[in-house]
Design brief:
Layout: E1 2-13, E2 16-27, E3 31-35, H1 42-49, E4 56-62, E5 65-66, E6 68-69, E7 72-73, E8 79-82, H2 94-99, H3 107-120, H4 136-149, E9 154-158, H5 166-183, E10 186-191, H6 194-200, E11 203-208, E12 211-216, H7 218-223, H8 228-234, E13 237-239, H9 242-246, E14 256-261, E15 265-268, E16 274-283, E17 288-294, E18 300-306, E19 317-322, E20 328-331
Parallel strand pairs: 3-10, 3-11, 8-9, 9-10
Antiparallel strand pairs: 1-2, 1-4, 4-5, 6-7, 11-12, 13-14, 14-20, 15-19, 16-17, 16-19, 17-18
């Protein structure tokens, strides 16, 4: 069942058009990520779904219920919004923050619901603590517990992991993804972090030039990007010289470019037809990144990822192996 449906959504601020003809659906138990650079309108979509922004055209439906009624936008009780800064009340303790969302319940029912959430979110021992006494991860759990207290069917996540360190971020992503699946929520995640989008999502919508550039599963977008913009946004790639790609029998028209992932090029000391000059070697922990110039192809610079520690600072010449099937042809970004 479709939990959220966005149809022909467009919005402008004054004379500045922000988004145009955005359409996508989110099923129950599905996580859809809106991915794009800062300022592209990602959070504006969330705010509009939450009825915090109402000057838009098009339709937003929650469980087949349109948010436009009698010419007015209305807030839907099935929507939960988790903000980037958690939006917790500093003058209330953990229990009181969660209770705040349950003001309509009778005391006994409220207590049972809060106790259940405290246990589910591993917050029992922190129930009487003030917000400033909690870690970032604990504050986030309180924020999510408060949102889920009133049992929404749709959850909106606006950069929810941005204030967490890398270790805690990874643990929280796994935990939250499982929670969304177990509860059958329809979730929309906004982020500019490509790895976060790839690891969390069932579907990804990449915003570019006010529209959705490509929409599909993480695997579809990563392995078969529709444009140079999508390829660059999701992965480290090289734009190959046209002559090099054509030497492999790859056909390229004037509206397309050949690309290859930086980890799909093999570096060798054995002579091949592709000769390169090493300009820089960067140690990146479990791999190296080499900046290489292709002298025979207009001195184009490419980046190559390799796990082989076969280079020294005095080596300048190398040879490259490329497989034809690793070369992709995508349309130029307009």
């Amino acid at each position: 069942m479709v939990g959220v449906s966005i149809k022909d959504f467009s919005i402008s601020f004054g004379n500045t058009k922000i988004l145009e003809d955005i359409s996508f659906d989110v099923l129950q138990g599905e996580i859809v990520t809106i991915l794009g650079p800062s300022g592209c309108g990602k959070s504006t979509i969330l705010r509009s779904i939450a009825s915090l922004q109402d000057e838009y055209s098009g339709e937003i439906l929650i469980n087949d219920h349109c948010l436009l009624k009698d010419g007015r936008r209305e807030c839907h009780k099935d929507i939960g919004y988790i903000f980037q800064d958690y939006a917790l009340f500093p003058h209330l303790n953990v229990r009181e923050n969660i209770e705040f969302a349950l003001y309509r319940l009778k005391a006994l029912e409220k207590q049972k619901r809060v106790d259940s959430l405290l246990k589910q979110f591993d917050l029992v021992e922190h129930r009487n603590k003030q917000i400033h006494e909690l870690s970032g991860g604990q504050q986030q759990r309180v924020s999510i517990a408060r949102v889920l207290a009133y049992e929404p069917k749709v959850i909106l996540l606006d950069e929810p992991f941005s204030n967490l360190d890398s270790i805690l971020r990874n643990k929280t992503k796994i935990w939250l993804k499982k929670l969304i699946k177990d509860m059958g929520l329809s979730a929309i995640l906004v982020t500019h972090d490509q790895k976060e989008a790839l690891s969390m999502s069932d579907k990804i919508a990449i915003i570019h030039n006010k529209k959705i550039e490509q929409y599909g599963t993480p695997q579809e977008l990563f392995n078969n990007p529709s444009s140079l913009y999508v390829a660059n946004f999701l992965n480290k790639i090289n734009q190959l010289p046209k002559a090099l790609a054509e030497s492999f029998g790859v056909s390229i028209d004037e509206n397309s470019v050949p690309i290859i992932s930086i980890d799909k090029i093999e570096v060798s000391s054995k002579e091949t037809e592709i000769k390169g000059l090493i300009q820089d070697i960067s140690f990146c922990g479990d791999y190296y990144e080499l900046e290489i110039i292709l002298e025979d192809f207009d001195s184009v610079e490419i980046l190559v990822k390799t796990t082989k520690a076969m280079f020294d600072n005095n080596q300048t010449e190398c040879f490259l192996n490329i497989n034809k099937e690793d070369i992709k042809v995508v349309r130029k970004t307009v």
